């Protein structure tokens, strides 16, 4: 391994420990953001789907009496079932869009790959420190890991 250059802060370019730690940090940051986005989209899909069912089911279960009572309570000029069905359609749309965003962005697949790469990088670092892996093996495996998380 090359020596640090005088007057230049930090490790030299190509220092495997520095590269591994930097990539682990990037993967960790990505995982924090991606998992949070994944949770928000899943929560939105579930809550919006449940609300759509509630809004669509209320007039069906409550019938004309519920519709009349809601119209009187909120001073609606149109039948309450129309408003409830509109809310149900909007909630259903929100659930569909959030589900489609999860699928179209391959979020679950990317999170899974990133978790795998993070584990591989940890193993690489341990193998490098303990000497069970040669610098050539570490470099080759590191290159493979970086290729797997090119989406970050």
Proportion of β residues? under 5%
- Largest sheet at a glance? none
Please report the total strand number as a whole number. 0
Through-space gap between termini? 28 Å
Q: Give the mean pLDDT.
A: 88
Radius of gyration: 27 Å
Q: What class would the helix/strand composition place it in? A: mainly alpha
| Uncertain spans | 1-5
- The number of helical elements comes to 4
Order of helices and strands: HHHH
Describe, in short, the structure shown.
The chain has 152 residues and is mainly α. It has helices at 16-74, 80-104, 107-130, 135-148.
Features:
rod-shaped; 80% helix; 4 helices; mainly alpha; 152 residues
What does this structure look like?
- The protein has 152 residues and is mainly α.
- The chain has a domain at 16-47 and 88-148.
- It has helices spanning 16-74, 80-104, 107-130, 135-148.
- It starts with 15 loop residues before the first helix and ends with a helix.
- Residues 1-5 have low confidence and may be disordered.
């Amino acid at each position: 391994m090359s020596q640090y250059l005088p007057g230049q802060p930090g490790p030299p370019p190509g220092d495997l420990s520095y590269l591994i730690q930097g990539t682990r940090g990037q993967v960790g940051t990505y995982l924090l953001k991606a998992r949070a986005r994944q949770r928000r989209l899943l929560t939105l899909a579930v809550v919006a789907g449940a609300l759509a069912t509630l809004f669509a089911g209320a007039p069906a279960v409550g019938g004309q009496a519920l519709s009349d009572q809601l119209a009187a309570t909120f001073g609606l000029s149109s039948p309450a079932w129309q408003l409830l069905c509109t809310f149900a359609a909007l909630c259903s749309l929100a659930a569909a869009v959030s589900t489609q965003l999860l699928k179209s962005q391959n979020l679950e697949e990317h999170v899974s790959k990133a978790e795998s790469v993070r584990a591989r990088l940890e193993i690489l670092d341990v193998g490098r420190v303990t000497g069970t892996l040669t610098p050539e093996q570490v470099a080759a495996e590191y290159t493979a890991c970086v290729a797997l998380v090119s989406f970050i």
